[in-house]
Amino acid sequence: MATEQQADRVSPALELRGLIKDFSTGLRGLKLRAVDRLDLRVEAGQVYGLLGPNGSGKSTTIKMILGLLAPTAGHCEVFGVASTCVEARREVGYLPESPYFYRYLTGRELVRFYAELGGLHGKALTERVSEVIATVGLTAAADRRIETYSKGMLQRIGLAQAIVHHPRLLILDEPTAGVDPVGAAAITELILTLKAQGKTVLITSHLLGQIEDICDRVAILDRGRLMLEGAVRELVGRADRQALLVPTLPAAELQELRAWLESRGHTLEMVAAPQARLDQIFLDCVGKKK
Amino acid sequence: MKSKGLTFLLAIVSLVVAGAGLGKFVEPVWRATRAAEPALRLDSAAAAAGQGVTLALLGGFRALVADASWVRMYVAWEARDLPATETLLGLVTTLDPRPVYFWLNGARIVAYDFPAWRIETAGGFTAVSPAIQAKFKQQQGEAALQQIDRAMQYHPLSADLWVERANIQLNQLKDLAGAAESYRRAWQQPRAPYFAARLHGELLRRAGRSAEALAWLVKLHPELPTNDEGAGAPVVLGRIRDLERELAVPANDRYQPAR
Amino acid sequence: MMTRVTFSLRRTRLIAFNTVREAARQKLYGFVGVLAAAFVLGARSLRDFNFGAPELKFLADCGFGVMAFFGAALVITATAQLFFSEIENRTVLTLLAKPVWRAEFILGKFIGLAFVAGVFCTVVTLLLMQVLASREAQLLREFPDASGLGAFVSYSNVIFAGVLQWLKLAVLAAFTLLVASFAQTQLFTVVTGFFILVIGHLQYLAQDAYARGGSWLGRGMSGLMATAFPNFQLFALADGLNVGEALPWWHVARVAVYALGYIGVACGLAVLSFRQREI
After folding, report:
1. Which of C149, C201, C228 sits opposite B15 (nearest CB)?
2. Contact residues on chain A for C101, CB-CB shorter than 8 A
3. pLDDT at B49 over 60
4. Domain span at residue C94?
5. Which of C239, C249, C276 to mutate: most B Cβ within 10 Å?
């Protein structure tokens, strides 16, 4: 355990160096470059957002991390192990976009199947399966066939199979796509719980508000290239400005404050009422807390 | 692309090398299989059987196609369609020479039904001269014997084929000597019927070879079980006595049964 | 340092079991039931012809023909469908994202398909034996003096024939899986599978062409066909015998080794091909 923790401190959860992926177009000599010299480093314990428009190379990058595609050039390592090795996948849990699972299996059978593939056996297997099903809130529906599940339930059972074998890195591809706000909030809460447990989470999403709320760092891709990378707080925040939240001031006091600031060489640039988030209002309305 | 090309080449080489080795290993089985299946040898009989052979071979259904063709043959037989019946008989025995049943019934159709159909086609039994009728019987009888001879390549120990040969020689070709010899050969095969031995003796007598007939029956009688009515031991003994009287054998030299 | 993930028969067995489960729940087995019922009904109608003892041969041939024809259709379509459904539905992504060797996936698929083929052959063989036994008993009552014209059935022969058919279907499944491992569509796989079936039955013609000689190109092509493809005519050993005659066991053993050899090579090549496949 100590050695693993030491290794974690040394090896990032994910490291991409000069990663390139070309696809053949069928025309002689012409290739499509889907990922172009991508360098990324995800430290252990972070929630990392991978953003980009459609066709930016996110899915291709994820497939290379999972060993489903071989890079044309460059390196991709998961906790210091090349992603093309089977060993690397022992530490990875994957939730695909719009997950499709074996329709004829029940939720419990599905999670059990993937748990066994992940290396769990015997009593530990049974206990862990029940545990993760309870974690994702599907105990009541565990013995129903997958084909009867709603979209949100599919996402949750997908999360269950992704975490069942205790992976250290979770890759979640559009985990809240098509899910209602209540379900999305539950998934977000789960991601934060996993982070608190020391897991590393790589998440892709088109819902930027959500990314902003839960990610420590983000990378933005476009046409296979890294356009921007950094801590969320640094990227969205304005270092040279402050916002103060006070009760609504009468006009005279507001004017007094403005004069005081001007006497010290500052300008009061904006006075506005703060706005609540619509998703928070929705959740409060339907009785769920964020 | 280079890697895919190499993989493809490796696949071909692996299959060829493995196939060559495995083919050598299974060669004795293939030789035995092929020897038993004229359809697989594609000899002249198979070629004459026509496209039905090819169809049957494509899916490995030769036995099933043979059975279906036998049923079709019966339909043609009922319609007295000689060319169709003949073709289908050839196809059936080419595809599936196993059952003696196909050969026996086929030979009977060729020997007995075909002459009758030809006579009817030629004008009927009253219109066609006895010479022509005899010629038809002779031709079809010989054709049937050729069929029996082909059958014996696959069933060399079949008493039933020798008996059928004898019947055709006797009934259609009026060849007493030939029939007698065929009954004798039938008696030599495993599980031969007792009547074959008796008929050999009887036909020798009818052919004027009474001494030979007597010697044969005297040799036969001790071999017949007394507790089996079908063996006909008393009948054989009676025939021995008839021949002894016919040949005026002295009393001291007459056959004395052991029991 | 992560410990090595070695090849696991347990994971292979899991994937095989999942394949069988998917086949069963997609009602592929219902197909077998309908087929078996059709066979029974068809067999009863043969009594109208009143062939007597040779009817047993007809029944046996019908059973083996059903096994060969429908078995081939079942194996080719099931192999293509059960493989491509994983790719089209992307369940293969989730599966291969786990610590699973691609070889385990391919071998698991093959074992599952071979099991499905085995169940099919077992059902038809048992049904055939039951129909033969019932009719044989009736015929012996009608013709108590019946002798060697197929009145007695060698049931060991019927069982061997069923085993040989199963081996043939397993070889066909392995070759179809090899095609699926690099093919882009299910349709291509099914069509190629049927081509392999036909080529396998006519492979001996290529052997003859090779032996006859000729141009280097012709000889090369015929040699390639004669070795790269299995000879499916070998698996119809039971066709070469009367129903009452037992198969020599060493014939069956040699054909079994032959089948296992081709299965090994085809599956090995399928693993090699699938390892290079970009999912």
Report:
1. C228
2. 86
3. no
4. 10-275
5. C239
Any domain includes C5: no
Of A197-211, A268-282, B72-86, the one with minimum mean pLDDT is A268-282
* Chain C interface includes A84 (CB < 8 A): no
Q: Which CATH number goes with the domain that contains A187? A: 3.40.50.300
- The size of chain B, in residues, is 259
Is residue C2 assigned to a domain?
no
Contacts of B33 in chain C (CB under 8 A): 233-234, 237, 240
Is C3 a domain residue?
no
Taking an 8 Å cut-off on Cβ atoms, the answer to whether A68 and C5 are in contact is: no
pLDDT tens digits for range B62-108:
777 888 888 889 889 999 999 999 999 998 898 888 888 899 999 99
Residue A18 lies in a domain: no
Between A247 and C170, the higher pLDDT residue: C170
Judge contact between A107 and A81, C-beta under 8 A: no
Q: The complex's ipTM?
A: 0.85
First-to-last CA distance in chain A? 34
Counting as contact any 3 or more CB pairs under 8 A, the partners of C are: A, B
Q: What is the tally of structural domains in chain C?
A: 1
Q: Return d(Cα C178, Cα C268) in angstroms, integer.
A: 9
Q: A202 and A171 in contact (C-beta within 8 Å)? A: yes
Task: Measure Cα distances from C160 to A17, B102, B103, C156, C252 in Å.
Answer: 59, 25, 27, 6, 7
Residue A199 within a domain: yes
Find the domain containing A50 and state its range.
44-68+86-234
Q: What is the pLDDT of residues A113-125, one digit of tens each?
A: 999 999 999 999 9
Q: Tell me if A243 is assigned to some domain.
A: no
Q: Is residue A115 part of a domain?
A: yes
